[in-house]
Design brief:
It is found in: Mitochondrion matrix. By secondary structure, this protein is an alpha/beta fold. It has an 8-stranded mixed β-sheet with strand order 1-2-3-4-5-7-9-11, with helices on both faces. Strand 3 and strand 4 form a beta hairpin. The protein binds ligand LUC3G6IP. The site of ligand LUC3G6IP has 28 residues, from strand 8, helix 4, helix 5, helix 11 and helix 12.
Length: 296
């Protein structure tokens, strides 16, 4: 069975976001708040506020593995079909690491069919998030490199915790790879062409103060206020009539989305042939070994 079908089958019986399987939130939720779990994603929905908080819990670093991408996609699909939810806040279940980005083990030592399946899942999650009709906020409560940064850039606004360890950026070139065109476009749409060119070529990871200055995040707040600020900003976005906000969002993002839709298959093939190169495999293996050595 394909991975998406397997995860769907796993999630459907026990983790519906509506109905009896959702209990009241243990804490922090308003009256009627509901909680749903999948393996790697926790959803806390507050129907009265029209908001769901989607929490990543894929230890140790919330990397975007194929399973994580798939579960997150399915959770988002369910929320999009839930009429009580108009806005979603993305955050990490435990502070420290928002997401370490794409899971490097999915891009190392595998076969071309696996690389293609993985990249398709990355594309699908980006398309789902970037075109979402929901208002999306990122409550960035941890470090946020590469694919983690991309996730946050798909949102309508970003709130970052004021901790100098929590850097954010598309640092791919530092690994010896590079951000594909639609990562680049997503960043250009947020901080502009020149700032993106500098950030991407140098593979910059911005501190909170730098990220705020360049416009990569909208607000930097004390660590214990990240989620509450994201929720309070969400209420501003939800004060706008949905149809007007959604039409505007579509208008702003359509050209970028269309570029990927038009070149989707070629983008997969390009990724597979790039990542399969011996030289790139070597570079990724060295990077992974360096990360692992730290701990042994
Ligand atoms: C023609 C062209 C076509 C297109 C071509 C496109 C090519 C480009 C393709 C893809 C773009 C890539 C996007 C990405 O997202 S790549 C990932 C980038 N991420 C990073 O650089 C972050 C790496 N991680 C870290 O810096 C740190 O782990 C940390 C700061 C996030 C957390 O630090 P710490 O708490 O100290 O944890 P550890 O470093 O000790 O890590 C724990 C454990 O986790 C493993 N790990 C970390 N990050 C990843 C990861 N991204 N994927 C997989 N595994 C990861 C790490 O190795 C440790 O493992 P252990 O020792 O075995 O426990």
């Amino acid at each position: 069975m394909a991975l998406v079908a397997r995860v769907r089958a796993l999630l459907l019986p026990g983790s519906r976001l509506r109905g009896a399987t959702l209990g009241r939130a243990a804490n922090g939720g308003g009256a009627g708040a509901r909680r749903a779990l999948s393996h790697r994603v926790l959803v806390e929905a507050d129907p009265a506020a029209g908001v769901a908080v989607v929490k990543f819990r894929n230890p140790p670093v919330n990397s975007l593995s194929l399973e994580m991408l798939t579960e997150l996609g399915i959770c988002l699909e369910k929320l999009e079909n839930d009429k009580t939810v108009r806005g979603i806040v993305l955050t990490a279940d435990r502070p420290g690491i928002f997401s370490a980005g794409l899971d490097l083990t999915e891009m190392c030592g595998r076969n071309p069919a696996h690389y293609a399946e993985f990249w398709k899942a990355v594309q699908e999650l980006w398309l789902r998030l970037y075109q979402s009709n929901m208002a999306l906020g990122a409550a960035i409560n941890g470090t946020c490199p590469a694919g983690g940064c991309l996730l946050s850039l798909t949102c309508d606004y970003r709130i970052l915790a004021d901790n100098p360890k929590y850097t954010i950026g598309l640092n791919e070139t530092q690994l010896g790879i590079f951000a594909p065109f639609w990562f680049k476009d997503t960043m250009v749409n947020t901080i502009g062409h020149r700032a993106t060119e500098r950030a991407l070529q140098l593979g910059l990871l911005f501190t909170p103060a730098e990220a705020l200055q360049v416009g990569l995040v909208d607000q930097v707040v004390p660590e214990d206020q990240v989620q509450s600020t994201a929720l309070s900003v969400m209420s501003q976005w939800l004060a706008i009539p949905d149809h007007a906000r959604q039409l505007t969002k579509t208008m702003m993002r359509k050209a970028t989305v269309d570029q990927l839709l038009k070149h989707r298959e070629a983008d997969i093939q390009n990724f597979v042939s790039f990542i399969s190169r011996d030289s790139i495999q070597k570079v990724l293996q060295v990077y992974l070994q360096k990360l692992r050595k730290k701990n042994h």
